[in-house]
Amino acid sequence: MIRIKNARVMTMVNGTEILNGEVWTDGDKIAFVGTPTDEQLKTAVFEREIDAAGGVVMPSFKNAHTHSAMTFLRSYADDLPLQEWLFDKIFPMEAKLTGEHIYWLSKLAILEYLTSGMTASFDMYFEPEAYVKANIESGFRTVLCGSVSGEASNIERLKGYMKQFNGISPLISYRLGFHAEYTASYELMEALGELSRETGLPVSTHISETEKEVRECVEKYGKTPAELFDSLGIYDNGGAGFHCVHLTEHDMEIFRDRGVYAVTCPGSNAKLASGIAPLCRFREMGIPIGVGTDGPSSNNCLDMFREMFLVTALAKLREKDAAAFPAADVLEAATAGSARAMGLDDCDVLAEGKQADIIIIDLMQPNMQPLNSIAENIVYSGSKQNVALTMCAGKVLYERGSFFINEDADRIYAKANEIINSMR
Amino acid sequence: MIRIKNARVMTMVNGTEILNGEVWTDGDKIAFVGTPTDEQLKTAVFEREIDAAGGVVMPSFKNAHTHSAMTFLRSYADDLPLQEWLFDKIFPMEAKLTGEHIYWLSKLAILEYLTSGMTASFDMYFEPEAYVKANIESGFRTVLCGSVSGEASNIERLKGYMKQFNGISPLISYRLGFHAEYTASYELMEALGELSRETGLPVSTHISETEKEVRECVEKYGKTPAELFDSLGIYDNGGAGFHCVHLTEHDMEIFRDRGVYAVTCPGSNAKLASGIAPLCRFREMGIPIGVGTDGPSSNNCLDMFREMFLVTALAKLREKDAAAFPAADVLEAATAGSARAMGLDDCDVLAEGKQADIIIIDLMQPNMQPLNSIAENIVYSGSKQNVALTMCAGKVLYERGSFFINEDADRIYAKANEIINSMR
Lengths: 424, 424
Known about the structure:
The structure is a homodimer. The first copy, chain A, is an alpha/beta fold. The first copy, chain A, contains 15 helices and 18 strands. The first copy, chain A, has helices at 38-43, 82-94, 99-115, 128-138, 155-165, 186-199, 211-221, 225-231, 249-258, 266-271, 279-285, 304-319, 327-341, 374-381, 409-423, and strands at residues 2-9, 19-26, 29-34, 48-51, 56-59, 61-66, 118-123, 141-145, 172-175, 177-178, 204-207, 239-243, 260-264, 289-291, 358-361, 387-392, 395-399, 402-403. In chain A, helix 3 crosses helix 4, helix 8 (225-231) crosses helix 9 and helix 13 packs across helix 14 (374-381). The longest helix of chain A has 17 residues, at 99-115.
């Protein structure tokens, strides 16, 4: 067992309430949360004791939407609108990617996730074999989201991946999904709805990221993307919608009625000038919310602290209301909300029997002082510099600037530069 | 002399161009920038050699608007609109502040500035003696901005401070200024215009931060704040306007014609739901731009990396244009632009004879890889975790997580908590 002591424990079971106490882990699970009795301490056998030094111990952040291996295109094509960025700059470079590339580029993203206290990503990209290998080797948790596009026959590939990857490792799961309405044939989307009904599984996809996407969908089908998906049964078992910047009121009713998670990516939506998602309205309607970084080519960083500030700051600007989307709601969305959007219901909060996906936040840094409100300090003032430790499935993968992912960080940096330089 | 070697030098003299080379400092000044000859290296005597390890050496960031000592109110009254936040929560607590409080609370802010690569602040607050003492002891550079308000007779206090603090230390300067139109009598503003004409000095103040402020000024005077100030001669010698969220086209013409700096504080303006300043229009019109964090009660952190991302991200959202306000312009505004807005023309870029206000950015971290564009990596993906070293006036004040400001950081944290707890 590992003992984390001398901690302010924010379990997220009762919102952002703080308990002074300890968290113990056993294997990949949480074994104890609270203040141990002398008897408990006498009988417990610890392989390691970690002194949190009065820091916050809380559930790790989960990245509910990303394209990890796009690290190679960070700062490669900035300051362009989405459609030009995607079709002229990104797709041609992605066509050159091999599995070997994806393997190294994913490891680079995993390093960055860990520095920001993230222990899981909901990832949509090519070459899942290479990506899965990178994650298992690193000890990082990932949920792969189906990214099929084009013709209906591609659904067979998706079915193959579902069989291939679910069960391969406790760290890996694969969920039904497709890229987006604007890259999928009607027949493919029909087949996805059918598959969801057959299997009872949720379906996740990009949705209503730009005005153009919604307008063209309405022109083509006479329906918004959410209406189209719902008419095909795609949301019959829930799922997650990535971006959700331009949902209509009717779209939101569909999300609410079907229990679809709205995954917001404010950094990417701002940088690509796509707009600000109506998060306050989502919350009013009872739509569950998760937070994602999107890929490192559109963001450009993979930093949940930046995203958390943007979630609330952009909501305040959009609603012209400084009280909009307060800190506690942001923390809920970035931890439990994101976890549940990914199907990681056992990684959502700190409680006995849950997965030991835990971070320690160092409060003895100037941006965290004084301690007027710890939750507000984390959301409004926090930085990845405050992440003292990141643990995934009971294993410490990052601690005070050092990585423990079975690979040298400098080697990963060298590989990433080699890959992009070979493509120019 | 101090030698910083093995560096990518971004001087900001020619934009964000990178030179491989060295920077040498002698006392508080830069003695050399470039690639030294063998002869130069043979004759130079270095007290210290710093290996930048391939990192970026660039001008430090300057914080062109803040209220440093408001650290005690960080996370004290979040999620409130500006007027309620200011009049109901902030002013009553500020009334309890003593000089001793200001001294410790300012030191807390200085620690935070250093972690984010800032070496100077344009500060507006009470009790300048205590604040000046904290800055001189810490080795931090500060420009105090007059913060008088109320009756015309208060101008005498401003004149006294100008005499008292200008010349007290090479690190300290004091500039004419007042709090804002809405806290000043007409007679005080008249007296400020007169003082500016007499002395030939610029005047700085809060301006057009909220719609309410502008509307009420127009109701009262039949003029916007900028029109009012200009009619009184306040901008005859330039100055800086803090916030500038709701400037009209005519206001912008005044700023351009008078050479007034627009200092933007996007984090604070977003968190208080004040709006997004029209930075692209400022740039089109040739209005010079600086960047500030505003105080830690409204932001809540003092992090130039967050501000830089917000400068460009909010401009992109406002203009619905992903090409708006590119990375190079953001870096220019946060370094040279801010420095010049504060009258620190000798701290703007890296060149022989300039002040040695320098930072080293560590590129060997996952958020900075691969090296497609270093300037874009810094603005879009950078974090204060990348700040390896912060040097002010030739002295290293922060290096890899440790502070060298003649005071123990933990003691400062304890004092800050003690102060706020004594006031509740």
